[in-house]
């Protein structure tokens, strides 16, 4: 399919209520993301970027295109632009302190299997890997397997490259930056292969069937649940529980919460839940 490129002005392209509701429904049915009312400007501005690139003049035409290509092609770009991917190294650092104190000591002599669900551009799983390597438990690096998944192809490309702008590395302790990263000629930093080889990156829709089995000791899904409604949140948390070993830990974002007892967990620290 080809398109004629045109100049699209802000006056010419405004999303209607019907088109906004249509976009909300499409993204919700696919991956459970619930876009609140009042986000018309956000959806409009993000979709305009794709429309300009394709030379499409109306939101109706664009939405028809993505529905015709679901779940491939331009539909995946639609998902990419409507997902929010904000992260950083050592974000909500109290969680990593908890891991150092209460989780890493239990890993000595074990095969480590952790999951960063909603890994964005890779900062979270890399932080987990560095913490494990630096823990007093002296976990054998060959035994560490961290699964890192996200729905956005764009951020996964960054994560797989392992290359970060200097300002992105400001929260990494200097000794860790020196030990686990190499400075490149363009003043960026690349995580070394030892760390990167512990992490397996993959695209995953949390609202879909998960193509893996086995149990994890730790699952981190932080600042992801806020984009789901309560029903979807509880469905996903139950699936997490099924994949956690007994006494395993689920980490949510500090702005997120759940009915721990009803879902088979005990709240053991802020936004930290242990399977019981």
CATH superfamily of the largest domain: Vaccinia Virus protein VP39
CATH topology of the largest domain: Rossmann fold
Structural class: alpha/beta
Number of domains: 2
How far is it from the N-terminal to the C-terminal residue, by CA? 53 Å
Question: Main sheet?
Answer: 7 strands, mixed
Q: Tell me the number of helical segments per DSSP (H or I, 4 or more residues long).
A: 10
Mean pLDDT: 92
Tell me the fraction of residues in β-strands, as a range: 15-25%
Query: Strand order, biggest sheet?
Result: 6-2-1-7-8-10-9
What is the approximate shape?
globular
Give the helix level as a range of percent: 25-40%
State the name of the first-level CATH class of the largest domain.
Alpha Beta
SSE string, helix = H, strand = E? Answer: HHHHHEHEHEHEEHEEHEEE
DSSP strand tally? 10
What is shown here, in short?
This protein has 276 residues and is of the alpha/beta class.
Explain this structure.
The longest helix is centred in the first third of the chain and has 15 residues. This protein has ten helices and ten strands. Helix 1 runs parallel beside helix 3. It has two domains: about 70 residues, Chemotaxis receptor methyltransferase CheR, N-terminal domain (Chemotaxis Receptor Methyltransferase Cher, domain 1, Orthogonal Bundle), CATH 1.10.155.10; about 180 residues, Vaccinia Virus protein VP39 (Rossmann fold). The N terminus is likely disordered. The protein has about 280 residues and is of the alpha/beta class. The chain has a seven-stranded mixed beta sheet with strand order 6-2-1-7-8-10-9. Strands 3-5-4 form a three-stranded antiparallel beta sheet. The termini are far apart. A hairpin with a 2-residue loop joins strand 9 and strand 10. The chain is globular and about 60 Å long.
């Amino acid at each position: 399919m080809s398109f004629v490129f045109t100049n699209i002005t802000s006056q010419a392209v405004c999303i209607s209520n019907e088109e906004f509701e249509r976009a909300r429904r499409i993204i919700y049915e696919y991956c459970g993301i619930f876009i609140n009312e009042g986000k018309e400007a956000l959806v409009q501005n993000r979709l305009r970027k794709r429309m300009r690139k394709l030379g499409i003049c109306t939101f109706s035409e664009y939405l028809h295109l993505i529905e015709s290509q679901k779940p491939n092609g331009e539909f995946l770009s639609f998902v990419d632009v409507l997902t929010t991917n904000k992260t950083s190294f050592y974000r909500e650092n109290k969680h990593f302190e908890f891991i150092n104190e209460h989780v890493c000591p239990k890993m000595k002599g074990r095969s480590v299997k952790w999951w960063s669900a909603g890994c964005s551009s890779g900062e979270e799983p890399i932080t987990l890997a560095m913490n494990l390597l630096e823990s007093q438990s002296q976990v054998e690096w060959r035994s560490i397997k961290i699964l890192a998944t996200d729905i956005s192809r764009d951020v996964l490309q960054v994560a797989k490259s392992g290359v970060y702008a200097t300002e992105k590395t400001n929260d990494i302790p200097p000794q860790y930056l020196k030990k686990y990263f190499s400075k490149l000629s363009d003043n960026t930093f690349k995580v070394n292969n030892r760390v990167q080889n512990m992490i397996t990156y993959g695209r995953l829709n949390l609202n879909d069937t998960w193509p893996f089995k086995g149990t994890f000791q730790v699952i981190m899904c932080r600042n992801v649940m806020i984009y789901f409604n309560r029903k979807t949140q509880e469905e996903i948390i139950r699936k997490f529980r099924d994949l956690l070993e007994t006494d395993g830990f689920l980490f949510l974002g500090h702005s997120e919460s759940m009915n721990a007892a009803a879902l088979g967990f005990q709240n053991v620290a802020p936004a930290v839940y242990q399977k019981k």
